[in-house]
Amino acid sequence: QVQLVESGGGLVQAGGSLSVSCAASGRTFSTDTMAWFRQTPGKEREIVATISRDGSTYYADSVKGRFSISRTNAKNTVYLQMNSLKPEDTAVYYCAASPRFFATTPTDFTSWGQGTQVTVSS
Q1: How far apart, in whole angstroms, are the C-alpha atoms of residue 14 and residue 24?
Q2: What pLDDT digit, counting tens, does each position of 44-82 carry?
Q3: I need a surface site. Which of 35, 51, 70, 122 has the fewest CB within 10 A?
Q4: What are phi and psi of 77, to 5 degrees?
């Protein structure tokens, strides 16, 4: 099991930028696929981005070109840089870890952080 702790959420105006990070401990971080999901009240948790152990990335169409996921294995940390933020990006953002190389759905992920709120004002 991997323990995950997110940080860096907050309030930002539309068009602004925000970065969130996730510190991991426990199982070997460097071999896991890491991801960011987000969820708003009444909606299902949706994938935002993933990064595999080889550095390959996946982005949801809604954030492609605006968000960037990265990882630093030496620090057991994964980051999400969010640019050109829109009000519809407002959500609780969750960090997740999966031992699977190909992982994009919530059921693929076995470890979750507690979430961090990101609010984008119009």
Answers
A1: 30
A2: 999 999 999 999 999 999 999 999 999 998 999 999 999
A3: 122
A4: -135, 140
Q: What DSSP line would sit under 41-93, residue for residue?
A: TTS--EEEEEE-TTS-EEE-TTTTTTEEEEEEGGGTEEEEEE-S--GGG-EEE
- 3-state secondary structure at position 12: strand
What amino acid occupies position 115?
A: G
Per-residue pLDDT of 18-51, as tens digits, reads: 999 999 988 777 889 999 999 999 999 999 999 9
Structure tokens at 106: 């919530």
Distance, in Å, from the CA atom of 25 to the CA atom of 64, rounded to the nearest integer, reads: 28
Question: Tokens 């949801």, residue?
Answer: 60
Which residues partner with 79 through β-bridges? 21, 70
In sequence order, what are the residues at sequence separation of 6 or more whose Cβ sits closer than 8 angstroms to the Cβ of residue 28?
none
